[in-house]
Specification:
This protein is of the alpha+beta class. Helices cover 26% and strands 28% of the residues.
Length: 806
């Protein structure tokens, strides 16, 4: 929001310096993004007097002029305009000056003649008006005067960052109200009651709202007999200072009122509207799927039923709250104006503007919420200005369709409660004064302790008592709140159990060699297809109402797509070894559910090598078992009662290299090597090992209390055995059979070799195990161990079909 200090001072008596005002605005929650002087944009542009105007020696349509700019020798300037003569005063951009459009003036030659500057037209100076000739100034204008000073543009522009909950501050009147509350002054609101004459508006215009849920109010005024032309200087100055480009008197008036009162307006050429039974019949309705509208920018737009349009009997004539249509545009031949002042539903306007890529000052205001009670006031103000500036006559009456009137809210503020929250001693009188200065209705009762407050419709953000506490303290002065230390008795700070476990998971992932990353929660809806994942039968994707782009239109259901993009990003920039993990949230929803489900997840990706070959480097590419090792380290730290990795067929993972992770018989997640086609879809080089675990399952099976066993005092008896089994028999199955057959004497079981090759039948593998036998009270003898060991081998061979390898 651009605020002109000159304009602001017309509405409120500001006796602060710009620096002091900026500080006060910052302290009251209205952040200031920048402060600039308008005069800076006119540096090097001065008033010149044309001394000589001669034909160019080598060009019939150019003039060669000598121009006095009040400093040194006259400048030689080549000019193509014809609307001036010797003796005229004109704005001159000297060498080095930069025009508002960003064009810098240089000394140059035009058709062989040296030109040392440029005489300017009004549009070239960003002022609007006739582009066909120079801006000729009054003959008494002082030569050499800075052009910005001549225009009275010695102004300061403050750019405010207005938060989405404060649509009332998207206007000069709203900012003036804020400044008045801060300074204790009185703000005035521009008010205009147009002089009316002629046939009433309702005889020429009718309005119907077919979808009142998207348009709570629509008003229309009719202004007859206008003359389209350039705007007066004061109007172009204000429009330019507000950040808009002057176009014509009618368009500039609608922009001026929008910046002044915060109510966007739109002007239709009334003669272009379709007539039904002698009146222009305007309908506010949803667009039809596939309906087309050519907007003011010349682009044909394909609409859908989620968009709101203004229509007549010929079809759509404007996108409600976004942009008008080309077929009803105000032009130089326009005589009668139908002026729209309406209130449109914010979400609908936002969806339309973003889906079509049409974001404007008007759509920004409608998205944040326009005051429906301000529609008529803005229409009256604009109609009066059109009559004054464009010479029109205002038809009596306003065509006003208001099916759902907005009612002010009635709330209360307990002054004692406010002071208890803030630790202050603000009186009820002072609190009431502040709230009244902000435009709220205030009554005192209950012995002065309670304020009954009427919240006007332009403040939709004030909904609860605590909102009034904030309003009072930000204007009263946050810096005046006494500084105190909070009481410490019984308030020992500590981490929650959940926080402690999450930090342990973090630490384990880092200790395992992974680096933490953070990816976007917003993803492309096509990512699920790329990773071959599907939404559960009872689930839906969580779609964003206002996505930043199509690639970030839904909330993620898995961490994998974002992690694969990180792998691809690094590999394509010369980083082949990628070891990343992320702790984040995944989302899903289901039909009829208001809020999405949120689940914590731990995900990881590993690609390349652990380290490059060297003194300690290992050139073995990372594979399934490296990922399994990371999860085993995590399971060891969380200490579930039972940890298992079992084969699973998952579409996004390599067959035979994919598994489910189970903790205490609960499926905690998955692990495996990403399928090459999935990796290719994200432009990542395979192999890529990935895993994803459910935080809820991890924490529900984690055990804070550990069971420890005494360090053994007696040595173990260790026997090695090699078992030949079929390739289809898993190591886990063999280990389970060994432990089951070992009885109380078997202490540890360790696999130390897997062999395939000479001496082992094709289709089989040899698993070599180290079995340790031990009891706590003595050293076992060979006579005690041997029978147990032989019995174990018989049972295992029978259970898994193994043979002893000789």
């Amino acid at each position: 929001m651009h605020v002109s200090m000159k304009w602001l001072k017309e509405l409120v008596d500001v006796d602060l310096t710009v620096e002091e005002l900026v500080d006060r605005l910052d302290m009251t929650g209205t952040a200031v993004e920048s402060v600039r002087s308008v005069g800076e944009g006119m540096e090097g542009i001065v008033v010149g007097s044309v001394l000589v105007k001669e034909p160019h020696p080598d060009a019939d349509k150019l003039s060669y002029c000598s121009v006095d700019v009040g400093a040194g020798e006259p400048l030689r300037i080549v000019c193509g305009a014809t609307n001036f003569e010797a003796g005229d005063r004109v704005p001159v951009a000297c060498v080095g000056a930069t025009l508002p459009g960003g064009f810098t003036i240089k000394k140059t030659k035009l058709r062989g003649a040296v030109s040392e500057g440029m005489m300017c037209s009004a549009p070239e100076l960003g002022l609007g008006g006739d582009a066909g000739g120079l801006l000729v100034l009054p003959p008494d204008t002082p030569v050499g005067m800075a052009f910005g000073e001549y225009l009275g543009q010695a102004d300061t522009i403050i750019e405010l960052e207005v938060t989405p909950n404060r649509p009332d501050c998207l206007s000069i009147a709203g900012v003036a109200r804020e400044v008045a509350a801060i300074t204790g002054k009185q703000a005035t609101v521009p008010a205009s009651v147009p002089a009316e004459s002629g046939a009433p508006a309702h005889r020429a215009v009718s309005v119907e709202i077919a979808d009142p849920d998207l348009c709570p109010r629509y008003t229309a005024r009719l202004i007859r007999g206008v003359k389209i032309g350039p705007s007066p200087e004061w109007l172009t100055e204000r429009v330019t200072a507000s950040g808009a480009r002057p176009v014509s008197n009618i368009v500039d008036i609608t922009n001026l009122v929008m910046f002044e009162l915060g109510q966007p307006l739109h002007a239709f050429d009334a003669a272009t509207l379709a007539v039904r039974d002698g009146v222009a019949a305007v309908t506010v309705r949803r667009a039809r799927n596939g309906e087309r509208l050519t907007t003011l920018d010349g682009q044909e737009r394909v609409l859908d039923s989620e968009m709101l349009v203004i229509a007549d009997d010929s079809g759509a004539i404007a996108l409600a709250g976004v942009m008008g249509g080309e077929n009803t545009e105000v032009s130089g031949q326009t005589v009668d104006i139908l002026l729209e002042s309406a209130c449109f539903e914010p979400t609908s306007t936002s969806r339309t503007s973003r889906s079509l890529g049409l974001i404007s000052e008007a759509s920004t205001r409608f998205e944040r919420g326009v005051d429906p009670e301000g529609c008529v006031r803005a229409a009256d103000r604009a109609a009066a200005l059109m009559a004054e500036i464009a010479g029109g006559t205002v038809a009596p009456g306003v065509v006003d369709v208001y099916p759902m009137p907005a009612a002010p809210r009635e709330l209360e503020l307990r002054v004692s409660r406010m002071n208890a929250i803030l630790g202050t001693d603000i009186s009820a009188t002072e609190a009431g004064r502040i709230l009244a200065a902000l435009g709220l209705g205030v009554e005192t009762y209950n012995d002065g302790d309670t304020l009954r407050i009427t919240v006007p419709t332009f403040r939709p953000d004030l909904e609860r008592e605590i909102d009034f506490v904030e309003e009072v303290v930000r204007v009263w002065g946050m810096e005046r709140v006494p500084v105190t230390l909070p009481a410490g008795r019984g308030r020992i700070g500590r981490l929650t159990a959940h926080q402690r476990w999450m930090r342990r998971i973090d630490a384990t992932m880092r200790a395992a060699g992974l680096n933490e990353t953070m990816t976007y929660s917003f993803v492309d809806s096509a990512d699920l297809g790329r990773v071959r994942m599907t939404v559960p039968d009872d689930g839906l994707l969580v779609e964003l109402v206002n996505p930043m782009s199509e690639e970030q239109a839904v909330m993620r259901t898995s961490l994998l797509p974002g992690l694969l993009r990180s792998v691809s990003y690094n590999q394509r920039r010369g980083v082949p070894d990628v070891h990343l993990y992320e702790i984040g949230t995944v989302f899903s929803t289901s039909p009829g559910r208001k809020l999405p489900r949120e689940h914590g997840a731990v995900g990881g990706v590993m690609a390349g090598l652990w380290s490059r070959p060297g003194w300690t480097g290992d050139d073995h590419p990372l594979d399934f078992f490296d990922g399994k090792g990371v999860i085993e380290a995590l399971a060891e730290d969380l200490s579930p009662r039972h940890f298992q990795v079992r084969p699973a067929d998952l579409p996004w993972l390599q067959p035979g290299r994919s598994a489910e992770v189970l903790l205490d018989s609960k499926v905690a997640g998955w692990l495996g090597e990403v399928h090459p086609s999935v990796a290719a879809a994200f432009e990542a080089d395979a192999p890529v090992v990935a895993f994803e675990l459910d935080v809820e399952v991890l924490l529900s099976t984690a055990r804070a209390v550990r069971t420890y066993t005494e360090v053994p005092r007696h040595p173990a008896v260790t026997l090695d055995v090699a078992l030949v089994v079929d390739e289809s028999v898993s190591v886990e199955r063999v280990e389970q059979a060994i432990r089951k057959a070992g009885g109380v004497l078997l202490d540890t079981v360790r696999l130390f070799d897997v062999y395939r090759g000479l001496g082992v039948p094709e289709g089989s593998k040899s698993l070599a195990w180290a079995l340790s036998y031990r009891v706590p009270d003595r050293t076992l003898t060979d006579e005690e161990v041997r029978p147990v060991h032989e019995k174990l081998l018989r049972k295992v061979c029978g259970a898994v079909g193994a043979e002893l390898r000789s």
